Amino acid sequence: MSTRTGEGSRLAQARASHSGTDNKALYKEWAASYNADLPANVYIAPTLTAQAALSFASSATGSILDAGCGTGLVAEVLARGGASSIDGLDLSPAMLAEAGKTGVYQKLFVGDLTRPVDIADERYDIVTCAGTFTHGHVGPSPALREFVRIVKTDGVVVATIIDAIWESGGFKREIEALEAESLVRVVSADIIDYVQARGDHAVLIVLEKLSQAGQKGSGHKMQSSPAVLPAGQPLLRVRA
Ligand SMILES: C[S@@+](CC[C@H](N)C(=O)[O-])C[C@H]1O[C@@H](n2cnc3c(N)ncnc32)[C@H](O)[C@@H]1O
Question: What are the φ and ψ backbone dihedral angles of 59, each rounded to 5 degrees?
Answer without folding.
Answer: -65, -30
